[in-house]
Amino acid sequence: MILEQIDPKILELAKQSDRDLDEIYKNIDSVCLKNSDRILSAFIENNVSYTDFADINGYGNYDTGRDKLERIFATVLGCEDALVRPHIMSGTNALYLAFSALLKYGDTMISLTGTPYDSLQEMIGLYGDSSQSLKAHGVKYEQIDLVDNEFDEEAIVNRLKRNDVKLVEIQRSRGYSSRLSLTIEKIEHLIRRIREVNTDVIIMVDNCYGELVEDREPGHAGADIVVGSLMKNLGGGVASTGGYVAGRKDLIAMVADRLTAPGLGKEQGANFNLNNSFFKGLFMAPSAVRSALKTAVFSAYMMEKLGYQNVSPRYDAYRTDIIQTVELGDKDSLVLFTQGLQESSPVDSFVKVLPAPMPGYPFDEVMACGAFTQGSTIELSADAPVIPPYTLYMQGGLSLEYGKLSVMLALTKAMKKEA
To answer: What sign has the CA pseudo-torsion 177, 180, 182, 186?
Structure first.
């Protein structure tokens, strides 16, 4: 039994956390209720029927269930239209699909949040020699770094006054960086400032890890395009693949043409009998995100009280994504902690986690992901580049109880190493 393996000191601290975190948990519950209301209302307004779960094969023509699903996603994300497909296999794939549809030879894109997430860098062409990178197709790339976790508004506004930029991209989550994730309020404020000087530039938000953490989405804040993966928040731990691109109707039409072919657009694409899991995943998503957030808060509390350095966000901080980080200081501690999470996973608990190369990443990675869906990050997982300061990135947790067990076992293993 896992409880029998956990250090008594950690068990006692976990009991104290229930009392200290009660108000934080209640605030998370309140956001969950609001998001659940928006999703349930969208289901009812769109007359979701059992027949919408039917398997449509071949070309996928006349899939009314898929059409309803995409209308619901658009509503939930505050957008005009959406493309929700099993053919989009990851968040990176969704981003590449949107970029390649909207950016052509000679166009300029700007990252407004500095250097993007590792797996996007080769896609853009910041390193590597892929003939399919944006750079290889003649797209120009610029970036404007954050300043003390804030947008550099003056630099952004001055640059966009020149009206020669096709698209700007905002990465809501921190990725593999020490910066904080961005709130919807900050994104909305920046979008308003941009629109004061430039009404044409496409504003795109990478929404991965952030969906349903707050009670509004980037679409509600004025974003033109919002992109994410169903193996993260909006899949609810039920969807086994898939991704989405939501936004303005004209832009979604362009992305759909890029996914299928001009003239086919959104009308084709078999659902592989996944409509049921996509509907159910979205329906369960507020609850899954709530559990992931509570697991992150619990993890931060435990690590702070046990003296870990650079725990971010702090346990009592306002959150806008499900990611929790902690600096473990050395390679052995990083590997041991990750092994503890893997050993308490429901799937592949017998697998020994070791640093290894991973496609799309420039450094060896260590990863714990004993999940029902390979690569799922709404289920409790953790990964890290094996480089100083050996920062672990944790996310997910389908229930607080399972999350507690895994985190407590990982902390116990790390304490034994220190002893």
So the answer is: negative
